[in-house]
Amino acid sequence: MFGDNQIFAAPLAGITDRPFRRVIRQFSPNAPLVTEMISCHSLVGQHKNCARNFDKYADEGNVGAQIFGADVRLMADAASILQDSGAKWIDINMGCPVPKVATRAGAGAHLMRDHKLAEQIISAVVRAVQIPVSVKTRLGWDDNHRDWAELIKIAADCGARFATLHGRTRAQLYLGNAMHPDVHNMPIPIIANGDIRTRTDIDQMEKLGYCGVMIGRGILGRPWALAELQGQDIQKNVGETVLQHLDFVIEYYGSRAGVPLFRKHAAWYSAGMPNSSEFRIKVNRIDDVSMLKVAIRDFWGII
Known about the structure:
With 303 residues, the chain is an alpha/beta fold. It has helices at residues 18-27, 40-44, 72-84, 99-102, 115-128, 148-158, 199-207, 225-229, 238-253, 255-270, 276-283, 289-300; strands spanning 7-9, 33-34, 38-39, 63-68, 89-94, 133-138, 162-166, 190-193, 212-215.
């Protein structure tokens, strides 16, 4: 059975920001969490319109910072900045499938097609920091190019300490069922990612040789999911958690940006509950923090 340091929260763009990590951390004090992916260009350039460029991780516990990009020097510089900011390890994104990253920027999943560039980036990042470096990738670009094992061996040769393998190709995006190959013969520990939702799923990954699991969409609206998968009996008040999460978001982004950003979280928290559709429609029309809190209190029956 995997311990609490072997069940990770995946990097999710626009979701696993500092406010959400703070909520997850309350339920899972020791779990490894990964930031949403950070552009090396934006971070090194200290672009002020991106709040995560200025995050400090010293008070966040076991948090890895994920970077993406195709410029070798900037990736190394970004890793160094994140190390100085308190990240416990650096993760290199080699699996993001969205066109603006994987095709137009030549980063993310594109590095599965350019192993030479991938090798240069991993080597440069490893040399730039003293903390561990990992990579996160997929099975391959498409069904005709399932060369994940080759890329992971390159990562190991360059000094990466572990890798996360998402069980889909880039062509699949997030569609279809994830397929998890046996990884017993890999040179570094492999973390399984994709469609892992239950203890049975986790047990199956362990049988296939994985050294841990990474939970992605399973944490949407469920910041306690990691703790439950670790076998903990979680006592939670969902409505109070939603309100606290909202407070963290407003503190971090301000109300003007924070309220629209929080709408998706409110929808995920309410999923499957009676009258959740009406609640989501109502929330999507609210721009005021006080009104949003009233709607949340009413929905969850908080006096």
